[in-house]
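Quick one, T. Sequence first:
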Amino acid sequence: MAEGGPQPASLGPSSVDSTDLSDSNLLDCPVCLEQLRQPKSLPCLHSLCEECLSRYIVNEVSGTSDATTSFTCPVCRTLTHPMDKTEDKEKWAKQFPTDNVAIEIIQLKNGTTEPHYCMPCQKKGKMTTSAQFWCKTTQSLFCQSCKVDFHDMIHINCDIVDITESKSFLLKQLTSDKTCDKHKEKMDYYCMDHKSLGCCKCITVGHRKCEEVATTEDYCEKLESSSRLQEMTKSLRQGTEAMESLIRDFYLQLQNIADDKDTALKSIEDLHERINICINDMKKEITDDLVRAYKEEKENLKLSSQKCERLKVAIQNTLESSTTAMQGNDHIETILLYQRGQTEVESCKGLVREMRKSLSTITLEHKTDPDVTSLGKVLNFGKIVVRKQGRISPSGTKTFAKPLSECEVKEVRKVNIKCPSDTSDCAARGVVYLDDGRIVVSDYRNKKIKLINTEGDIVDELKMGGNPYDLCMVDNSTVATAIDIPGGIRILTVTPSKLTLASEINTEMPCYGIAYRDGGFVVSSGSEVFSVIRDGTKVTTQKLYGGTDTVFALSYDSKYGRLYTTNYSYSTGSQAVGKLSDDNKHSDVLKVGVVKTAYGVDVDGEGNVYVCGYGSNNVVQMSGDGTNVRELLTAADGIDNPEAISVCGDRLVLTNLSSKQCNFITVFQLI
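Structure tokens:
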């Protein structure tokens, strides 16, 4: 410790009372919800316990590729990179800077800061005389006597602070008088070009060519005069309302499925009493299935609710702190909180979009054979069925939930799908965008299925015993492809970095389009559409529809029970897109016009249909009944012979067959 007690730079006046600290959640870890321990600060300005952050990182990256170089903040889900990506994942948390401000505020709150002593008394050998006053001009501590006898005799207009009134005299320095790490000078400037604070030396050396540099005071005045702070406050409040609405909705869902669980258990017990025989083993099996399904859905709902809860608390804290900072004219803190608020509002919008995509009403049902007790029937306890039906988002989320039918589209990136082992240019005639961001694509010319990770790298390729066409998703870890020659269906298991052939369904006809409907497959062969049913080794096909033009792609909308077909026709007025209802009644949806020689087709979570116009070099988005049609992408956007499309939430992936683009797929986002 330097002579005279703590270094003067750690002292300063504050208008914020220390009691505010005990009522705030700012010092709580968003993961363990307890007071921060060894807090680490992420680039997005959210702080967590080092132990909690380390455990969170390890859990998030577990099961992913060893080459993973990032993780998402558990509060705002901002993509975060460690400084040394080669170090073990368990040590990433240590790389982030310690939040010394939080540590000092916690010490201040808990009364654990060191005592302060009178500097003149220490010069006279009295080392433990408590200081009562702090002179900001001379950067010195005085007791009552020394202040009168020494300080006041010479200094008249100094700014004197009575540090015994409250602990808050430290808080201003801790949260406002921030100094530059490099030059150790006060950060009085803000570069709007780089969105960074700096001292006069930082600005002079590193930001000479920047066009928008201002003092922190001027920038705060600009924020206030332009109403951006008020707009941020409004957005943060709306974000809080959106999160609260989702949390309430998840709580109601938890209540509902708990009631369903109880009803199903009672149904199981009633059946057990009716048949009155010893079938305890069968009862245990079905009960375990029910409880397992309940726990799985309960955990999914809780995880979604926790995401919303964390972001809600963070937004509330930012809102509270922003108000305090503005009232106290704390310009630096105002800027930092404004930046954090921007990140949280964007994260809130993204989380609402994510939740809207997956939001569904969940019910648990015990389904039994009504004739289970009849003579000659094999006794069984039925099965547990988990049903999920898409539904509209809660009203509180509407501010952040722009309908996909009103969104514009922007290109995110292009991905090279050609492998070194390929003998020809690619022909991607089928594609599936998985929920976790990975992409599976079929390559007709090279007779392969390829797996692309979230970074855009091909992590596996699987040779097919034929030419793969369209792809469809069976579940989150299973896809199926239609095979032209020799004909049939190949079902593949998809792990994070590997494709495995799970089974084959051989047919006596070539298959082009494919969709998964009600536990079975529907395929197209030429201009006809068939259902394919496999019972053991026996395969049965049934014709559902026959037209005049080749159907190259199918897509099933499970939410509304519609199977969409595309028709490869260039004749104006003929059918471009048709649909089959669950009872296999066929009707026209779109005529050839804006779309010519329709190829790929897919449906988003809102029931909008996306169609590739192979001959018209465009992609259209239309309502499920075809009444509202708009061109989403055209030749002006680089669309050239689009062939396959897959939609996942607010993102879509598109393949093109033109010679210039056949080795690439393009990812777009609806904004």
